[in-house]
Design brief:
The complex is a heterotrimer of chains A (290), B (386) and C (552).
Chain A lengths: L14 H20 L3 H30 L5 H40 L43 H24 L3 H33 L6 H33 L9 H26 L1
Chain B lengths: L10 H18 L18 H34 L15 H30 L6 E8 L2 E6 L4 E5 L5 H4 L3 H6 L11 E4 L3 E8 L4 E5 L4 E5 L5 E6 L4 E7 L11 E7 L1 H21 L6 H20 L17 H4 L2 H10 L15 H13 L11 H7 L1
Parallel strand pairs in B: 1-5, 4-10
Antiparallel strand pairs in B: 1-2, 2-3, 5-8, 6-7, 6-9, 9-10
Chain C lengths: L1 H19 L10 H7 L3 H29 L10 H36 L7 H20 L27 H29 L11 H32 L13 H18 L2 H15 L6 H14 L15 H13 L1 H15 L8 H24 L1 H7 L3 H31 L1 E2 L2 H27 L14 H31 L1 E2 L31 H6 L8
Antiparallel strand pairs in C: 1-2
Helix pairs in contact in C: 3-4, 3-5, 3-17, 4-5, 4-6, 4-15, 5-6, 6-7, 7-8, 7-9, 7-10, 9-12, 9-13, 9-15, 10-12, 13-15, 13-16, 15-16, 16-17
The chains are: A mainly alpha (290), B alpha+beta (386), C mainly alpha (552).
Bound molecules: heme-A (HEA) (2 copies), dinuclear copper ion and copper (II) ion (CU).
The site of one heme-A has 31 residues of chain C, from helix 3, helix 4, helix 15 and helix 17.
Chain lengths: 290, 386, 552
């Protein structure tokens, strides 16, 4: 019989059921509030609070167990695989939106203009409709917010690209610091990454403000506005989450957690950050640039 | 032996059992071939539907053949390679050669199927010059047919009486083609290459007439096309083939194919009818006339959603009985019916109802279901409002 | 064989020892809280299986409403709008509530046992994956009681019927789908991590039982497909409530875009529901044919090929949406290609039976029925895949017949086979074989009476998703409904058999419940103790227990 280091199987836990209750309250509350139920918003806030409580409680427990040395390398490996495949699932989530963008640009919009086997389709629309990308003029513009212009790639988005690419470098720098036991580099790298992330978010907020206030480019601006805001919005949300997670990691580093061998939490967040980075490159190229 | 485990010994039952199963299936399968038995596709009346039928039979028999081979081997070993017969298990478990064979042979069969399939597909998409064009628009839950060359346009609803027959078995038996009949047929000439343009006013519908070999989705905002050359005069029936809401099961299609001469006569008639309807809007109507006509229009055009007694469907379709719009300002009422409500199932009826029908249905709504407003709306008012 | 057997016996004794008096494990909590808090893969597997069973009854009851309404022409029992809600929720609940959770339950129970792991890789997350389901299911079902009724746009929820023209409850439906997806993704991550990281050190990938292999590949499909569904419902949510126009041509979008996104998920989804079934059958047939599985490695490659192909065939559900001809051709060729690896599997099963020494215990009968009836469903799938022929089949009962053959006599039958195969190991009791045999024949005959005539109905021109039909469809509908009621009633018997087994079944002591079953799960005590494989099995044991190395 081969012996194997004991794999840690936790005893029962309340966190998951709490998470489910929170999730149901949050989403159920949101759906109710969309249809004017007064209770909906309250339920949503409550659900959100429960989820925050659950995340901190659960993760806190995991951190404590980890610091107590409960996990062997095999457990560590399970966590790594878990994070890796989770990121893959996120990639597929973004793929749905990139796919939608690809489809409308290459198929739907040209078809609306009569391309392919849609020779008769344009008869449904006023002559003024031109099927070009970016689609500033919708086929039937009455119910939409027709924008005066769009956000151009080589302005704020280019700066944001630079910011995120730099942040990819700073997080790697922090990682080296961790690997080589240079705690100051680690802390400095983390702080720099967090600041870059916040700056990115600031620029993006400014960009959204410009789009909404000055350009009239909104979610209601037809398919261009839809794909633009959904892609950049979900990405921005991920940057926000990533920044939060980096902050938590920074706190843990300041408490002396992690070393060159045991650093799953750090690396998981670093992977996540790189993933967010790569998604941005896709956005920059396909949403803003070409 | 570590354990005896469990095994049941009841040879006879098991000998019969697989046969029983196969019997049901194999015997049922070929009966599909008898077209007039109502269990198979018809050959249809267009070149395309004939080709599809041929293709269908080919792939069907290929499947039957493969099935017979696979199931025979299986049943043979179930009968002869059983423990109770003293069969001793062999121990082979791999053979690259045989694996290769049963990868390549099916592949070859597939290619044999793919070749004729591709031919039919190419035929199908042939978009040569059409000799006439009909634009078909799906609505919840009716079809609009526009003869683009003749400038004729009309709506085709579920035939009168069918809705009542849904709850009355006796009527179902006596009514003509229950659920497969319409108030106004799509009339087409034979031996002409006809192009159908399909689109929709609201959700996705699908225009399907089996005998023509045509089924094509009608997508809102886009126009698909499809074509047919009918070779035989006759009446061909079909149904909407894409879930389009509550009455998806109640939007039949009836095509009547006529010889060119008969078709020409029909076209003349249609133009005369259209002229008469326009003239009807020019005179003053009495209340009784409006109410009678209004009830008729209401039951074909509105009752599907707002209910025969104006009660609606809570949460989906508002009631007409006691509605603020129907018992309130006439202008608002007219506007609602003429333009519909964007983004809801309430469609614009401007293009569907002529002045007289519009006036009648509005008058009817305002004086039926207990809405005793006493208002009269004349066709002239509608004309002015257009 | 004699020597290995005695080795195994000692092996088992050790395990017995272990489970018997082991105090570094805290025993399970008592009462409800045990199930709420549990992190044990067997407990969670049990929860999944019961949840799936209840949902099967709920979804089945809805199917009974459908069949009762269709028993005769005319509107007898329900209003058309309610009928559509039944169709929609029946499809959704069967797919997301019954079949998928049942397979995840089987995975939870069996994978750690089959790879010699002490538990799933991430036990707390495992609990969460399960406990999201009842909430999501409740949210989905609650829509039935809301103003305007529940979702009535089919389980495929095509826009714009599900966006502009749908009732308010649709937003609850959207969030229920989000939760179900989240649960599936977490479950799949856990399964992959367990298989790749928790295998006994002596087990190589190509030593793994096929059930484990098929689940590894299924888990990959889940992680790749479910997020796309989440994307689709998110776009719906935005279109419905926040003014975007993904699926609205007036703003430059396209309703057909919805179908592309949905089926990019939806087609892999149907293989998510069949690959584990292939795995189950590949475990059962060698056991009762007393012969190693034929073509183990080709089974693995075939499964992987099916999975990869499943991502590039989605638009065979959309041949009539106005797709350009090149698209139709491509999707037709890619679709029918799937018959090749699937055929390899069927041929391998048949060859495993060939020159075996077969007995026909209950699980084997279900497995054999699976092979035959799934193949019939596969044939009709092939016919649907021929683009020009699909003009006549699409959205008719021919399609309904096709997918019930692959889903009911395919996926569901394999689940029933698996339960009969492993239930004695789980609870240490044998089911009543007489009753189970009667149940088998009852179910197999009635299910064919239920679904076979639907082929005829479809070809004769009956569209799907209609509450009422023209009179020429009456006879076959009545036959189908009678078969449906009989098949539905068979579930009363099934419920009785299972409950009776758990409570009063004849105790089974042998670790190896079926005399020639192979696999690590048959080396642990019966009933399987709560904690197994605290110590990994050796490579010798793994090889001896392999069903495909020829060591039979
Ligand atoms: C478990 C689920 C499952 C499985 C395994 C399959 C398997 C297949 N399906 Fe099916 N399908 C569904 C579930 C499934 N399907 C569902 C739910 C729908 C409807 C969705 C909806 O609209 O609601 C559907 C609809 C559907 C359509 C759309 C029909 C339409 O709406 O018009 C098509 C079209 O191509 C199709 C094709 C196929 C094919 C080619 C296979 C192949 O994988 C089958 C391969 C198997 C075999 C062919 C048999 C064994 C092989 C041999 C013995 C080898 C020799 C054979 C030959 C060489 C022919 N399916
Ligand atoms: C995933 C698996 C799955 C399973 C297992 C089933 C099981 C069954 N299905 Fe269904 N079905 C689908 C998936 C499935 N289905 C899907 C995806 C659709 C498409 C939906 C859509 O169009 O959007 C569909 C659609 C569908 C239709 C077409 C509806 C329409 O187009 O309008 C029909 C009609 O006969 C039907 C019937 C049945 C029946 C009789 C069973 C039976 O096998 C069920 C047997 C089980 C029980 C009956 C439960 C147990 C018994 C009880 C709870 C006691 C009560 C019993 C009695 C009163 C007798 N199903
Ligand atoms: Cu129109 Cu279905
Ligand atoms: Cu498919």
């Amino acid at each position: 019989m081969q012996s194997q280091e004991q794999y840690y199987v936790p005893t029962g836990s309340y966190w998951p059921i709490l998470g489910s209750v929170g999730m149901a309250a949050l989403l159920g509350g949101f759906a109710s509030s969309l249809h004017g139920s007064g209770m909906g918003t309250g339920m949503m806030v409550l659900g959100f609070a429960i989820i925050i409580f659950m995340v901190f409680g659960w993760m806190g427990q995991v951190v404590n167990e980890s610091e107590a040395g409960t996990y062997n390398l095999q457990v560590d490996q399970s966590f790594r695989m878990g994070m890796g495949w989770f990121i893959f699932s996120e990639v597929m989530f973004f793929a749905a939106f990139f796919g939608a963008l690809y489809y409308v640009r290459n198929f739907a919009v040209p078809w609306l203009g009569g391309a392919g086997n849609n020779a008769f389709t344009p008869t449904l629309y006023p002559e003024a409709f031109k099927s070009v990308w970016p689609l500033i003029n919708m086929p039937l513009p009455e119910n939409f917010s027709v924008p005066k212009g769009i956000i151009h790639a080589w302005e704020v988005p280019a700066i944001n690209t630079l910011l995120l690419l730099t942040s990819g470098a700073t997080i790697t720098w922090a990682h080296w610091g961790l690997k080589n036991n240079h705690r100051n580099n680690l802390i400095g790298g983390l702080i720099a990454t967090i600041l870059l992330g916040i700056t990115f978010l600031g620029f993006q907020a400014a960009e959204y403000a410009e789009a909404y206030m000055e350009l009239g480019l909104t979610l209601k601006s037809g398919i261009y506005g839809s794909t633009f805001f959904m892609l950049t919005g979900f990405h921005g949300f991920h940057v926000f989450l990533g920044t939060l997670m980096l902050t938590v990691i920074l706190m843990r580093v300041l408490r002396g957690h992690f070393n060159s061998e045991r650093n799953f939490g750090f690396e998981a967040v670093a992977w996540y950050w790189h993933f967010v980075d790569v998604v941005w490159l896709g956005l920059f190229i396909f949403v803003y640039w070409i | 032996m570590l354990s005896t485990g469990y095994s049941i010994h009841s040879p006879l039952r098991y000998k019969l059992a697989p046969f029983l199963l196969m019997l049901i299936l194999i015997v049922c399968l070929p009966s599909m071939a008898h077209a007039d038995f109502g269990v198979n596709l018809p050959e249809g009346v267009t070149p395309i539907s004939n080709k599809i039928y041929g293709l269908h039979m080919t792939i069907f028999w290929v499947c039957v053949a493969i099935g017979v081979v696979v199931f025979s081997v299986m049943i043979y070993s179930m009968i002869f390679h059983r423990k109770s017969k003293g069969a001793v298990a062999a121990n082979f478990h791999e053979s690259t050669a045989i694996e290769l064979v049963w990868t390549l042979v099916p592949l070859a069969i597939l290619i044999m199927i793919a070749v004729p399939a591709t031919r039919v597909l190419i035929d199908l998409e042939n978009t040569d010059e059409a000799e006439m064009t009909v634009k078909i628009t799906g609505y919840q839950w009716k079809w609009q047919y526009e003869y683009l060359d003749e400038k004729i346009s009309f709506f085709s609803n579920l035939a009168k009486g069918a809705r009542e027959a849904t709850r009355d078995a006796e009527k179902r038996g006596s009514i003509d083609h229950y659920l497969l009949n319409v108030d106004k047929r799509l009339v087409l000439p034979i031996n002409k290459r006809i192009r159908f343009l399909m689109t929709s006013n609201d959700v996705i519908h699908s225009w399907w007439v089996r005998d023509l070999g045509v089924k094509q989705d009608a997508n809102p905002g886009f126009i698909n096309d499809s074509w047919a050359t009918i070779t035989k005069p006759g009446i061909y029936r079909g149904q909407c083939a894409e879930l389009c809401g509550k009455d998806h099961g109640f939007m039949p299609i009836v095509v009547e194919a006529k010889t060119q001469e008969d078709y020409d006569v029909w076209i003349k008639e249609q133009k005369a009818i259209a002229a008469a309807a326009a003239a009807a809007g020019d005179r003053e109507w009495t209340k009784d006339e409006l109410m009678v006509k209004g009830q008729e229009v209401y039951s074909t055009s509105c009752a599907a959603c707002h209910g025969v007694t104006g009660q609606g469907v809570p949460g989906a379709f508002p009631a007409m009985a006691g509605s603020k719009v129907v018992t309130g300002d006439v202008k608002e009422h007219i506007k609602t019916v003429m333009d519909g409500r964007a983004g809801t199932a309430m469609q614009a009826f401007k293009g569907q109802l002529d002045d007289a029908a519009m006036a009648a249905v509005i008058t009817y709504e305002r004086n039926a279901f207990g809405n005793n407003t006493g208002d009269l709306v004349q066709p002239a008012t509608i004309k002015a409002a257009r | 064989m004699a020597t290995t057997t005695s080795d195994i016996q000692t092996e088992i004794d050790k395990h017995d020892d272990h489970a018997g008096h082991d105090d570094h494990h805290h025993g399970p909590e008592k009462g409800l809280m045990r199930w709420v808090k549990t992190t044990n893969h067997k407990d969670i597997g049990t929860l999944y299986l019961w949840f799936a069973f209840i949902m099967l009854l709920v979804g089945g009851a809805m199917a009974m409403v459908i069949r009762a309404e269709l028993f005769q022409p005319g509107l007898q029992l329900v209003e058309p709008q309610f009928f559509n809600q039944m169709t929609t929720l029946h499809g959704l609940i069967m797919v997301f509530g019954a079949i998928m959770p049942a397979f995840v339950g089987l995975a939870n129970w069996q994978i750690p046992l089959m790879v010699g792991a002490p538990d799933m890789a991430l036990p707390r997350m495992n609990n969460w994956s399960f406990w999201i389901l009842p909430f999501a299911g409740a949210m989905l079902l609650s829509t039935l009681f809301m103003q305007g009724g529940g979702p009535a746009f089919g389980w495929t929820f095509y826009a714009p019927l599900s966006t502009t023209f749908a009732p308010d409850s649709t937003d609850f439906f959207i969030f229920a789908i989000h939760m179900l997806g989240f649960s599936s993704i977490m479950g799949a991550i856990n399964i992959i991590a367990t298989i790749l990281n928790m295998r006994a050190p002596g087990m190589r990938l190509m030593d793994m039982p096929l059930f484990v292999w098929t689940w590894l590949i299924t888990a990959f499909l889940l992680i790749a497909a479910m997020p796309v569904l989440a994307g689709a419902v998110t776009m719906m949510l935005m279109d419905r409530n926040f003014g975007t126009s993904f699926f609205d041509a007036a703003g430059g979008g396209d309703p057909v875009l919805f179908q592309h996104i949905f089926w990019f998920f939806g087609h892999p989804e149907v293989y998510i529901m069949i690959l584990p079934a292939f795995g189950v059958v590949s475990q059962i047939i060698p056991t009762f044919a007393r012969k190693p599985l034929f073509g183990y490695s080709s089974m693995v490659y075939a499964t992987a090929s099916i999975a990869l192909l499943s991502f590039v065939v989605w638009a065979h559900h959309m041949f009539l949406t106005g797709m350009p001809i090149a698209g139709q051709m491509y999707f037709m060729y890619a679709t029918i290609m799937i018959s090749v690896p699937t055929g390899v599997k069927v041929f391998n099963w048949v060859t495993t039976m060939w020159r075996g020494s077969m007995t026909f215990e209950v699980p084997m009968m279900w497995a054999i029925a699976f092979v035959m009836l799934f193949t019939i469903g596969g044939f009709s799938g092939l016919m649907l895949g021929i683009a020009p022929a699909d003009i006549q089949y699409h959205d008719t009962y021919f399609v309904v017949a096709h997918f019930h053959y692959v889903l009911v006599t395919g996926a569901l039958f394999s689940i029933i086979a698996a339960v009969f195969y492993w239930l004695p190991k789980w609870c240490g009791r044998m089911f009543n074989e007489k009753l189970a045999t009667i149940h088998f024949w009852w179910a197999v005959i009635s299910v064919n009476v239920l679904f076979f005539p639907q082929h005829f109905l479809g070809l004769a021109g009956m569209p799907r998703r209609i509450p009422d039909y023209a009179l020429q469809f009456s006879d076959f509908n009545m036959i189908s409904s009678i078969g449906g009621f009989a098949f539905g009633a068979s579930f009363f018997l099934l419920t009785y058999i299972i409950v009776d087994t758990i409570r009063n079944g004849k105790p089974v002591k042998e670790a190896r419940v079926w005399e020639s079953a192979k696999g690590l799960e048959w080396t642990v005590a019966t009933p399987a103790p709560l904690h197994t494989f605290d110590e990994a099995p050796t490579r010798e044991l793994i090889l001896a227990e392999s069903s495909h190395t020829g060591s039979h």
